[in-house]
Design brief:
The structure holds two protein chains of two kinds. Chain A is mostly helical. Chain A contains 24 helices and no strands. In chain A, helix 1 crosses helix 8. The longest helix of chain A has about 50 residues. Chain B has one domain. The radius of gyration of chain B is 18 Å and the shape is globular. Classes of the chains: A mainly alpha, B mainly alpha. At the A-B interface, helix 1, helix 3, helix 8 and helix 15 of A face helix 1 of B.
Chain lengths: ~650, ~140
């Protein structure tokens, strides 16, 4: 048994002890079903700030972002700006949802939608989205935690064993304490996640001898012209540019785009998918659990926008791009650009293990630190896993059992049923990950696209009473179907039935979430045009009138609205959208070298840094100046108790 | 339980969450860095570990200020025990470990001294120099 493995076991044991401790403490606080489902609606703002950040960014950022940057270069790194786009969803919807939840006593998003849209179908669809999101996404994240242990134990511990053991502990503390347990532990998980990403980024910088030396190697690489992705139309290295605004290709599996898949349209549509995280039913429950809205602004602007943005742009990029020169890329080895061989070959689909191998670099010199960084990775994964598991239990009881099986179910039974549901959801995720990994990856790929399809319905609920019930229902339904059939799962499904669809995955370099939203929004608007009725308007008035009272910006701030929205749309266009291609050459040519690069960095990186900084200004304007994430204008009191 | 009692209880639990989160984070990072520093005779890592402990201590002071609370007897006792045990381990290594280097000595002396000084500085700031002295003087009297 290696020293690293011993320390890994010791630190994991301590981490488990911590989580179980809070599971037990919070179980004693969960007297009622509301305590278990929503932490009694008393989660303090500082805990929300940390745990919501961990949920939003979690394992897919800590493990996935560096891996994809390693594979695809700076064109994927444009998605570091999700540090702005994800909280942008929160800015748009969180405070208003909180107000409605507090006012009308909602526990789940499905309850809220079904009452607002007067529709049982909405409830079922939201429940479907929640479970379709949770189970495969949980499976992917939990499997990633298992692989982390396998790599750091030099394969002495099989990934599935590690995954099952760690999930068992996660199940226990979430089962004991519910949302409050997940929130309290989430505070530490967020700090571990941030520190872990920074530390692993620093490990990479130290391998190069510093930031300047790292940039020098990047310059040599960009001058070579050819990268593993082939050459885009410009003729420059595909790692250093966005390969066009859009490419009208048939889709992956039928026709690969030239120079990489991350065109501006793909980056923008994938960002929409990521926005689905904070539009998801689970995140709404998280919002409902807050004591007040004090934490929303700080979480969106300072922690997500500033801190996460900084971590992704400087440390995530270091991990991803740096790995290319540390032995992980045989193609760069052939070009003579490798500076050391501390990493194994991770090309050809093996990039998912990148972060584990980066941590492994220091395991012989500093086994304690390597073990701790592994725990940071688990913490990042468990933050989201625990949140989605606990809210899945809540939704099972509130959106299925209570309304349709037994409306008189008491608090004790609700808690028991929720605990059983949490176990079943985690078990499903584990079985999928263990026995059907290919299906899990395909389904997991749909998860965020599904979440994003709730955006139009949320727009209707929070902002535009003009979107009618049939519009929201049809839009959501069609959006979900389109997401399925523009991604791998749907293509496989069609093939199973003997239908060969004339497109591949993500046709026209638009992510399936983007395709879904296009159809969803178009149908929402068209159907709303022809289905307006006075009865529905009168019903919705009670929601929107109250929102106007409690959440509308003050008159003196309203002049800021057109300015802020113009700025926000401009940011989306230039930061994540078609305008991002200007960043390819605006400051210098990709192969210009350090001497010609503005700020001594590749033009595309400078562009991302600038739009990150401007993005912070955008969400600050919206959250604070336009009062979209500040305290409500009035004290929000419960109108009628649902429990 | 009335609202006021309930609020006090919640505030107490939240303070506990903050303290536990603080030390679970700074404590583990400080320990791992300090340990790496000693093991590899790495001055930067070792001192960084102790700096992180001090940051954790400062954060705990801030938490106490925000929640209008103070160090509990249990916390003080735990801190003294951990400090004492660490000092014993350090001195034992210094005396008996043949691989103990000058860098290890610098790390340990600097780190433990810094922690002691920060503790004394906290007492002086909170109670004043005279009162801090009288705490010890009173104990000796009896």
């Amino acid at each position: 048994m290696t020293v690293t493995l011993i320390w890994l076991i010791a630190l994991i044991a301590l981490y488990f002890a911590y989580t179980l401790f809070w599971g037990v403490v919070t179980s004693r606080m969960a007297h009622t079903a509301e305590d278990f489902f929503l932490g009694g609606r008393q989660i303090p703002s500082w805990i929300f700030v940390l745990s919501a950040t961990a949920i939003s960014f979690s394992g897919w950022t800590a493990l996935g972002q560096p891996a994809f940057i390693f594979r695809d270069g700076f064109q994927y790194a444009a998605l570091s700006l999700c540090a702005i786009s994800i909280p942008l969803t929160g800015v748009l919807f969180l405070k208003r949802q909180w107000i409605l939840g507090k006012r009308f006593g909602y526990v789940t998003q499905a309850e809220m939608f079904s009452e607002y849209y007067s529709s049982t179908a909405m409830r079922w669809m939201v429940l479907f989205v929640a479970l379709a999101f949770a189970i495969p996404f949980l499976g992917m994240q939990l499997a990633a935690s298992g692989y982390l242990v396998q790599v750091l134990s030099d394969s002495k511990v099989h990934w599935s064993v590690a995954m099952w053991v760690m999930t068992a502990v996660l199940f226990l503390y979430v089962c004991f304490g519910g949302l409050r347990a997940a929130a309290y532990v989430g505070a530490l998980q967020c700090m571990f996640f941030l520190a872990g990403m920074i530390a692993v980024g620093l490990i990479v910088y130290f391998q190069f001898g510093g930031f300047g030396e790292f940039v020098d190697v990047l310059a040599k690489f960009s001058a070579k012209g050819i990268g593993p992705l082939g050459t885009p139309a410009s003729g420059y290295n595909a790692y250093f540019e966005i390969p066009g605004v859009i490419q009208f290709t048939e889709g992956l599996g039928r026709e690969a785009p030239n120079g990489g898949v991350w065109t501006a349209s793909m980056v923008l549509s994938y960002s929409i998918a990521l926005m689905g995280i904070q539009a998801a039913p689970a995140f709404t429950i998280w919002a409902f659990s807050c004591r007040d809205t004090k934490g929303f602004g700080p979480q969106q602007v300072w922690i997500s926008g500033v801190v996460i943005g900084l971590v992704l742009i400087f440390f995530g990029v270091a991990q991803g791009m740096g790995a290319n020169f540390l032995g992980a890329s045989p193609a760069l080895d052939e070009l003579g650009l490798t500076i050391s061989h501390v990493l194994p070959d991770l090309s050809g689909g093996k990039e998912s293990g990148l972060v584990a191998h980066l941590i492994h670099i220091i395991s012989s010199r500093a086994p304690w630190l390597a073990a701790l960084l592994a725990v940071c990775g688990f913490a990042a994964i468990h933050a989201m896993a625990s949140a989605f598991a606990s809210t899945a239990g809540t939704m099972f009881v509130r959106d299925f059992y209570k309304p349709y099986i037994n409306s008189d179910v008491d608090d004790k039974e609700q808690k028991l049923l929720a605990r059983i549901a949490i176990g079943l959801v985690l078990l499903s995720a584990l079985l999928l990950a263990t026995f059907a990994p290919r299906a899990q990856i395909q389904l997991g790929s749909l998860a965020m696209g599904f979440g994003a399809q709730l955006l139009p319905a949320l727009i209707g609920l929070c902002w535009m009473r003009w979107i009618t019930r049939p519009a929201a229902i049809v839009g959501l339904g069609v959006g979900l179907v389109i997401v399925v059939f523009t991604d791998s799962f749907g293509l496989s499904l069609a093939e199973f039935f003997g239908i060969q669809l004339p497109w591949g995955r993500w046709p026209w370099t638009i992510h399936s979430a983007g395709w879904g939203i296009i159809f969803n929004l178009a149908l929402c608007l068209l159907i709303s045009l022809v289905s307006q009725n006075d009865k529905e308007k009168a019903h919705k008035a009670k929601f929107h009138d109250y929102l106007n009272l409690a959440a509308a910006a003050s008159n003196e701030k309203r002049f800021l609205r057109p300015v802020s929205w113009t700025f926000a749309l401009g940011w989306l266009f230039f930061g994540l959208g078609p305008g991002s291609v200007f960043g390819n050459y605006l400051f210098s040519l990709p192969d210009g070298g350090v001497a010609l690069w503005a700020l001594g960095l590749p033009s595309i990186w400078v562009w991302q840094i600038i739009w990150w900084a401007l993005g912070i200004l955008v969400i600050w304007l919206l959250a604070y100046r336009l009062q979209m994430s500040t305290l409500p204008n009035i004290e929000v009191k419960l109108q009628e108790k649902i429990f | 339980m009335d609202d006021r009692t309930q609020n006090m209880k919640m505030a107490h639990i939240e303070q506990r969450v903050a303290v536990f989160t603080n030390w679970a984070f700074f404590g583990t990072f400080g320990f791992c860095l300090a340990q790496s520093g000693f093991a590899e005779s790495d001055l930067v890592a070792g001192l960084a570990g102790f700096v992180i402990f001090l940051i954790g201590f400062a954060a705990h002071l801030i938490i106490n200020k925000i929640f209008d609370s103070h160090f509990t007897n249990g916390e003080i006792a735990l801190a003294l025990i951990l400090y004492g045990l660490s000092m014993i381990a350090f001195v034992a290594s210094w005396l008996f470990d043949p691989n103990f280097t000058k860098v290890n000595l610098i790390i340990g002396l600097s780190g433990f001294t810094a922690i002691l000084l920060s503790f004394i500085a906290t007492l002086f700031i909170k109670f004043g120099i005279r009162e801090s002295y009288l705490m010890v003087h009173r104990v000796r009297k009896y």
